[in-house]
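Lab notebook, page 48
Experiment: co-folding of the full assembly
Goal: obtain a model of how the components sit together before planning crosslinking
Operator: M.T.
Materials (sequences as entered):
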Amino acid sequence: MQHAIQQIVDGFAAGSIYGALALALVLVYRATGMINFAQGLLAVASTYIAWTVWRAGFPLLAAVVLAVAAALVLGAFTERVVIRRFEGGPPHTAVVATIALLILINGLTGSIWGYVSQPFPSLFPSGTVTVGGVVLAIPSLATTGVLIVVVVLLQLLFLRTRLGLGLRAVADNPESSALSGLNVGRLLMVGWALAAALGALAGVLIAPKVYLDPTMMDTILVYALAAAVLGGLDSPLGAVVAAWIIGVTENLAGTYIPYVRDDLKIGVPLVAMFVILLTRPQGLFGRRKAARV
Amino acid sequence: MLLAAGCGRSNSSSSSSGGSSSDPGITDTTLDIGQSDPLTGPTAAPGSCNLAGWQAYVGHVNAQGGVKFGDGKTRKINLKGYDDGYDPARALANFRQIVAENKFAEVGSLGTPTNLAAMPQANAQKIPQVMLSSGSTAFVNQTKNPWTTGWPPTYLDEGTNFGKFLAASGKTLTVAVLAQNDQLGLDYTKGLEDAIQGSQVKVVAKATYEPTDATVDSQISNLAQSKADIFYGAISVLKLAAASLTKAQQLGWKPSIFLASLSSNPAQVIVPGNGTAYPAIWSTTYIKDWRNPDVAKQSDVAQFLQDMQTYASNIAQKDIINNCLWGYSAAATFVRALQAMKSPTRQALMDAIHTVKANDIPLLLPGITLDASSKTTAPITTLKIQQYINGAYTTVDTMK
Amino acid sequence: MNASRALKVALPLGVLVVLAIVPLSATPYTNYQLSLVGTFAVAILGLNIVSGYAGQISLGQSAFMGVGAYAAAFGVAHGWPVVLSFVVAALLPAAIGALVAIPAVRLRGNALAVVTIILPIIAVPLAKRYAGVTGGSEGRSVDWAHVPSGTGLEDDQWRYYLVLVVAAVLFLLGRNILSGRIGRAFAIVRTNEAVASAMGISTHRYKVVAFTIAAGYGGAAGFLYVLVVQFASPDLLNFQVTINMLAALVIGGFANLWGAVIAGLFYVYVPVVAGAVDPSRTNIFYGAVVLVVLFIVPGGVSGGIVRLVRALLARLRGRGPASPAPPRPRASGPESTPPSLRAGAGSRKEPQ
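Observation: model returned without errors.
Model output:
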């Protein structure tokens, strides 16, 4: 029984990793209507910036703050210079543009910093807390805590602030928003900037556990996409809850279902996601959309 | 280059090239060779290091005026690297490109499915595909594939070597295995299990992981249930090996650790994983531990470090992993063969390789013999066990 | 008028003649690459049918291609007649595609895309597990499709011609399907599902058909892959391959079938050119090229070429002052981009 709880706790920890990136995906989607395949790589690049600053001798917190600031600029720059071109056009083109960014940034980070995995320090004390024989790692607990705070902040942003309202309007209906006087371009830039900053935060939270290298986010991106979609692409809370469900289900399936074992365990939450979406296409917490004729 | 490779179909491209006066890619002063590695993608770290090791050694011999071949001529080596991204179709394309660009041979390429895809073609066209950087047993059968050779000990050999070490201790031991979910992991495990058969050592738990996995927490947690005495890590991904070390101790499970040679690097695995929490850490090895300051002073190691800096500066010294040393050493082995090569033909190269029998190849541990004459084993079959003590590796003969 | 019609006939014929002659003097390396181009063109054509024409994003094409490749390799290893191997290689993935599509196409847009990702993700560990069939992680080498003696050709040329013939047949087949009733139904389903249902078109059925056809093409491409590479391994199944095919498709262009051919050229040759520039930085080059091409012709290269050819023809006919430069490459040409892919109110955020 204790072992099962350990697997569940580890599943939550893994889910928090997926959820951190999923939040950034949700933010971009909510603010610009697009899925950004390059979200993970932007996070990796920002984390490398933090790493470089930290290696130069600066305190970790300062390095992280600088990286988040750099991410804001990177995100805005990417939207303005690269993505803006594709926003009015076919959605497939925009998605492939983000895929191209994924490949390009992967190459750039590898070229600048090399491909060998680097240890990355944690913002939180390493160490564990044992409750009833179940071991919880402090950095994982802290990541989960940060995640919950971010979810609350995002909900506040979208539902209670003018900026959030503007972001949602622009994502939902750019033409009407423009006619209403909103600066569509600026709001899109802000959306991407915030998402990149969130991604940077995810990166520095994740890297201590999975080590920093250009491919750090590749597998996590797939989980994050699944979590975002399962949660309802426009719900931050949904993305995180879905991510936890995925993490826990995966661990339990791998441990207790004899056929599944370790190699197929990734399939279980994904198939479960499929089934859930069939009965609830808008995702766990998403809003139902009507198709306009 | 693209056009040059495209036009001009020559008759000798698909027929035997042994027996002619000289083969493509070799003149009186130069030798052209090619290497296909994953230089981008998830396996880019070992791939780039491998190429860098080769470039370092080749740069070194070229700077000394070249290699004196067995036919008396001194030639410089032109080594060209190609990226296959660990994709077998691209690796085969690279092989064909190497042939179309009239290189003499493909040497030292890293990877298993990639080299497997090119192997039938290399043997059909009688193009040397040698000193491959893979421990797969598929590359050591020279009766079947006479134009292909490996270089490092096989994963099977590594497992057997460690299994014998455990069995020889006479102790009753339980082992928990975390193996990569492919032939590498299977070979490591089989080697271990074969060697401990009938002894007081037993495997009591097994788990697998994918190289692309983000964490192995769940697997370590399951293995920890067994409270085994030994953790056997058939792991090739450095960060996952480190993560295993971190997680196991968090759960209060502190076995003695075995790390595969691919993941025994201290800076990327043992230190970040807080390996000193464990009673012992062993690994199999056949090369010197360059991180040991005393060893670094030895002439071949010092030369290696200098050559890396001069000819392969894209790899920072702190990022040097075992693959760089293996590449350098394999390149040195190749040059030994060149020194025995009696005529400028590909067949002569293969014959020369089979004569290489040496124990003074740079970076190989004393006592490790390289014998490339066998048609059924890799050139290197002996391994030593090393133990990580006080920040460096030392070879040990028996388990304490 | 005559010039245009003459061009319409002469151009494809000319291309065919060139394609038939090239392998006779090209190196085996070039023939291998061109054969791969044909192989991936077929796979990407399948992707084009489901994602371009029918508008259903599929990220699972590499899995279908892999299944086809394994079926072909298995058949060869067990001495099946070649035709049987081909049929199984095409039909097995098609069946899987249909089975998966029946529930899956009830989802839309992003949800459908993410669900299709499941296919390559599960396929890789399954392939490794059932090593008896697939050869496991080290894959399966085959040795077949040698040129019959007496033709005077070599293996690489023979295989090139096989690929050319199969690909040409599949392309013609695709064109007939798409210009017929099925194709028209696809177009309506893609543009506006509510209208389609109102017209009595079973959107569900046609989406499943689209997936099935795409999967079948993927499987056929897998067969061709084993023909050319003589090797099948789990590396073909993985997600990265699908992503690269999708990027190649968008570069090539959805608008017409030639887009898939350009996509195949892109898929095979950009890594080669990148390697020539700098082997350790191939992905920088690749990503940059994709972005640059998208910037210049966001609707895809094939659409851009079509517009260019039209502009030239218009000039030939002397139709007044034609645009002084190649037409501005905005995705606004009526026939160059399928209508639904243009931006419209609400079309960017697809309903889930």
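Interpretation: The first strand of chain C starts at residue 140 and ends at 141.
Next step: discuss with group before ordering constructs.
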